[in-house]
Design a protein that fits this description.
The complex is a heterotrimer of chains A (351), B (215) and C (405).
Chain A lengths: L1 H10 L40 H11 L3 H5 L9 H14 L9 H19 L4 E3 L9 E6 L8 H9 L12 E6 L21 E6 L8 H5 L5 E3 L5 E3 L9 H5 L5 E3 L14 E3 L11 E3 L4 H4 L6 H5 L5 E5 L6 H8 L15 E4 L2
Helix pairs in contact in A: 4-5
Chain B lengths: L1 H18 L9 H8 L18 E3 L11 E3 L18 H11 L19 H4 L9 E2 L5 E2 L5 H7 L1 H9 L5 E2 L7 E2 L23 H12 L1
Parallel strand pairs in B: 2-6
Antiparallel strand pairs in B: 1-2, 3-4, 5-6
Helix pairs in contact in B: 5-6
Chain C lengths: L1 H15 L3 H27 L14 H15 L1 H9 L6 H25 L22 H28 L6 H27 L12 H27 L6 H31 L6 H7 L9 H19 L1 H4 L2 H19 L1 H7 L15 H29 L11
Classes of the chains: A alpha/beta (351), B alpha+beta (215), C mainly alpha (405).
């Protein structure tokens, strides 16, 4: 398996041999017999021909998910598109953690993702690998007096971020509190009446992009980390699905793909970022990314944009002239569960 | 003896290298802002590139000394310019009405403040300055700067709006700020928002969760 | 090398031959394993949505069993310590069985972890070098190290001893004693690290307590030896492998003391949660009394506590503890009680209520139950294989015969 060795060598920083051209399949005579890509990035179909005992022995012997590699077979498909797809899937499976990639490698992976989507769906998407800008640290403020429970933010978020429709995944929760206390035990997030209801007020929660994120600490493979502009992101292809981060988050910020996410074709947002709203797969974690595909281009996140009352404020907290800084300096702000020491970058205030 | 020393050094190195992987850590966000957020940030992204609507520089900067822009909606006012109809005094327009029919905005009901505080002529003077708004001191204002009018009574919201805690923006988060004026969201004649149904009902989700529980 | 090959061949031969009861037992286990394997296939194909876990309760039956079994594995050291360090000869026959139990329990733990993963094909991401291993920050990485290390020790030490005995030679103390000593401390380590997995999460106040680690150790040293006693008693019954009553009685003593300490710790927890309840006590309230009308776990935990108290009480009385029938009965009760209390009674309430107060209940789906039973069957299977081979060697029935070419 020359490509695997090449990839391993690349990972370990050694010199690599030139790769076998992608049209050298079983049918072409120059058999650079490449094993079939065992896992494609978009649907993990795990063909269980291998006995479970054997699989477990392999796994427990070295924690290698050898079952994927055990499914090797030469592709007899003559179509170069199919081989192209297999090569792309192979490269994607072995590409490594996004956090450790160089800019070139990042470009490479988003190009592969765009091409894979095109091959599968005969349609183009745009996946960006834009890095964080300098001197930018994103912060968010939520005006409790202004939120009226409209949930326009929730809808905008779901559409913008290509979330699974079948499980109704939502990053944002809107809680209806009764006047007199901010106690989430007694709040309701499934209200079914006109808003705002008399005697109640509303607060929205989502991932708070902590400066000291407990989820980042506990991930065994560093599939989630805090970017330089403060956004806590997930590399969906690196996540192993252990859900330790979900147990660690005090703010219900994270969502897991228990099944395979489904998005209707016509509702897909084609402007995507690798760390943001590109389509995820079964068995990986995802979360609010402060709409990284928008905010790194200077736009506001979809929730901020959609809120009709202007209850949501977003900006660069390192810029003394930004709205968010004005809010932090002039309004009486607080954060939730402040005593946990997570330093969330999401403040609440009232008029 | 030598071996133990090597082991201890390795242990310390291992622990330290684990600790050293964090960059300079602040104890709180505020601390980080205090250290890194003092100077103006020249952003590579110019917010003006993200805005298609028309905007003008805001004229008042009472509470915040940062320049910002406001959406200029004068062209969006349906019956602008007022002087097209209000070329005659109001009294004569009223007397013509039985003959020429009620035109334009007879249906505007003022649902703003108590009638002892506010009537039409609080903000408008159609006889002397038809295409302008009127301040409390009878100064005339351009419609594009109508926010100055609102700020006369709503000084708290005015302060918040200038700083960035109230209102909606055009474009994105970067500089310069281009924001909507008061009338961009509030109808000046009935500024309060009505009750409405939420855009999404999570009862489907509740049903699904109940399903899971009953399995 | 020749010895090794012959050892494996002979081991396999031992495994494949046995009396009728043995074959029925192994056949049943294989059947359960196959059912579990099929259920796992469905889970991998359709995703974890076939379980009843959800965003609110993201760890369920699999991790409950994992937590419990780490304790069982750690308890094997209770036999190791007296045998090799204190040289109590009456433990000698039992210790290899104990280490075999540790190996089976550990393999079950690893299987449960893999079964719980959303992306098992991505597990190679954890291998340092080709993947990223987030040590020392992530407690899961510490757990991976200590569990695999303990597995290694518990495979190599008995393996060395057995292969020496297989050749009719004595096992050299200088070789195995250091490994044994390490395993004693390591056993405490594996269970503390597993406890720290939970205790380190500020988001789950039910777990975020200093008592969690010690409580884990106490319940492990109660349930593990209890299982050992039951296993040794059945080995005595089904084979000619004689195990001294003295060893069993001493094990029972260890179990009793550990169970008593466990009850004291339970009392301490109940006091802390219910004397002046705060918002942090809601998980305990859900578990012991029900919350918002939801009380699915209440009968379970009270059953566990009653069994626990009953078993501990029975074991406390010397006369009863030294009676073989009573030991078996109370050990079984204790094992079940600790399984409930440390499995579903610990993991699930940690997630209830959710971070924003949502109370949602969890009970495992059929797929989860099938996979769990399959893994337990796998553990029993592995243990039977190891125990049978070890017993044969220890009884002198299995020896290396130099083949004449």
């Amino acid at each position: 398996m020359p490509d695997l060795i090449n990839l391993l060598k690349k990972r370990l920083g050694m010199e690599t041999e030139p790769e076998v051209p992608s049209d050298a399949g079983c049918g072409s005579g120059s058999c650079g017999c490449k094993p079939q890509a065992p896992k494609d990035s978009f649907d993990q179909v795990f063909d269980k021909k291998l006995s479970r005992r054997g699989a477990l022995k392999g796994i427990t012997a070295g924690l290698l998910a050898g079952t994927g590699l055990a499914q090797t077979s030469c592709s007899v498909s003559a179509s170069s598109e199919a081989l192209d797809e297999k090569q792309l899937k192979w490269d994607e499976y072995f590409k490594g953690n996004y956090k450790l990639m160089t800019d070139e490698e990042k470009k490479g992976t988003v190009e592969r993702l765009e091409r894979l989507y095109e091959l599968r769906n005969k349609d183009r998407i745009e996946v960006s690998s834009k890095n964080a800008a300098e001197n930018v640290l994103f912060g968010y403020a939520f005006n409790i007096s202004k939120c009226r429970g409209y949930m326009d933010c929730v809808n905008a978020c779901v559409e913008e971020n290509n979330q699974d429709r079948s499980s109704q995944m939502q990053y944002i929760r809107i809680h209806e509190h009764k006047n007199g206390q901010i106690n989430f035990e007694n709040s309701e997030d499934n209200f079914f009446h006109e808003v705002p209801a008399e005697g109640h007020f509303y607060m929205g929660t989502q991932c708070f992009h902590c400066e000291n994120p407990p989820c980042v600490e506990v991930c065994p493979v560093q599939a989630t980390w805090k970017e330089d502009d403060g956004i806590v992101v997930v590399d969906y292809d690196w996540c192993v699905g252990c859900r330790y981060c979900m147990a660690a988050c005090p703010y219900d910020g994270r969502r897991f793909n228990w099944g395979s996410p489904e998005i209707p074709r016509e509702e897909l947002n084609k402007k995507q970022h690798y760390l943001g709203n590109r389509p995820r797969k079964q068995g990986v974690m995802e979360k609010c990314t402060f709409c990284v595909q928008r905010t790194r281009d200077g736009k506001n996140p979809a929730c901020v944009e959609a809120c009709p009352t202007g209850a949501r404020i977003f900006g660069n907290i390192l810029d003394p002239e930004s709205d968010i800084r004005w809010v932090l300096e002039n309004k009486k702000v607080f954060r939730l569960k402040e005593d946990l020491g997570t330093e969330p970058k999401f403040w609440y205030f009232m008029d | 003896m030598n071996r133990t020393r090597v082991m201890i050094i390795c242990l310390i190195a291992g622990v330290v290298s684990g600790c050293g992987s964090h960059e300079h850590e602040y104890h709180s966000v505020l601390e980080r802002i205090a250290h890194e957020g003092r100077d103006s940030v020249s952003s590579a992204i110019d917010n003006r590139n993200l805005v298609e609507e028309e905007y003008v520089k805001a004229e008042v900067v009472d509470y915040s000394d940062v320049a910002f822009y406001v959406e200029s909606r004068t062209k969006k006012i349906v019956h602008f310019e007022c002087s097209e109809c209000h070329s005659k005094p109001l009294t004569s327009l009223r007397s013509e009405a039985p003959v020429s029919g009620k035109k334009a905005h007879w249906d505007i009901a003022l649902n703003h403040a108590h009638s002892s505080i506010m009537k039409c002529n609080t903000c408008h003077n159609m006889d002397e300055a038809p295409d302008r708004l009127l301040s409390l001191q009878s100064d005339t204002l351009l419609y594009a700067h109508s926010y100055k009018l609102c700020g006369q009574c709503h000084s708290t919201q005015y302060k918040d709006w200038q700083g960035g805690a109230h209102g909606k923006k055009l474009g994105g988060w970067s500089q310069p700020r281009i924001i909507k004026t008061c009338t961009g969201c509030h109808n000046p004649h009935r500024p309060a928002f009505d009750m409405r149904w939420p855009a999404r009902l999570n009862t489907d989700q509740v049903l699904r969760e109940q399903e899971l529980e009953h399995e | 090398m020749k010895v090794l090959i012959q050892f494996v061949k002979d081991g396999l031969a031992t495994t494949l031959h046995g009396n009728r009861a043995y074959h029925v037992w192994m056949g049943l286990l294989t059947l359960v394993m196959l059912v579990g394997g099929y259920a796992y296939y469905i889970q991998v194909r359709d995703g974890l949505q076939v379980t009843n876990m959800s965003d609110r309760i993201s760890w369920g039956l699999y991790i409950s069993n994992f937590t419990f079994l780490v304790g069982v594995a750690a308890a094997a050291v209770m036999l190791v310590l007296p045998t090799y360090v204190l040289h109590k000869t009456d433990f000698k026959r039992a210790v290899l069985i104990g280490e075999g139990m540790a190996v089976s329990a550990l393999l079950m733990c690893l299987a449960f972890v893999v079964a719980d993963m959303g992306g098992p094909a991505n597990l190679w991401h954890m291998i340092p070098g080709i993947g990223v291993f987030n040590w020392p920050n992530s407690m899961l990485t510490w757990d991976v190290i200590v569990l695999n290390g303990y597995l290694l020790i518990n495979i190599t030490v008995p393996f060395y001893i057995l292969i020496r005995h297989y050749q009719g030679k004595e096992a050299k103390k200088s070789v195995y004693v250091p490994g044994v000593l390490i395993s004693v401390f390591w056993a405490v380590g594996i269970h503390l690290v597993t406890a720290f997995l939970y205790a380190g999460l500020v988001s789950r106040p039910f777990w975020n307590s200093a008592l969690l680690g010690p409580r884990f150790l106490a319940s492990a040293f109660a349930a593990g030896p209890a299982l050992m006693i039951l296993v040794l008693a059945s080995i005595r019954k089904f084979t000619n492998f004689s195990i001294d009553n003295g060893a069993l009685k001493k094990l029972a003593l260890i179990t009793t003391v550990a169970a008593q300490i466990n009850l004291i710790m339970l009392g301490s927890e109940l006091f802390k949660e219910f004397y002046a309840p705060t918002h942090h006590s809601l998980s305990a309230q859900y578990l012991f009394m029900g919350l918002d009308g939801k009380n699915a776990l209440v009968p379970w935990i009270w059953t566990a506590i009653s069994l626990n108290v009953l078993a501990t009480a029975v074991l406390t009385f010397n006369r009863l503890r030294n009676n073989m029938k009573w030991i078996g009965f109370s050990c079984f009760l204790l094992f079940v009680a600790v399984w409930i209390e440390k499995g579903m009674g610990l993991i699930v309430p940690g997630f209830i209520p959710g971070p924003w107060g949502k109370v949602m209940e969890y009970s495992p789906s059929w797929i989860e139950i099938a996979v769990t039973l399959g893994i337990w069957a796998m553990g029993c299977f592995i243990f039977t294989v190891l125990a049978k081979t070890a017993i044969k060697i220890e009884m002198g029935d299995l020896r290396f015969k130099k083949e004449s070419t």
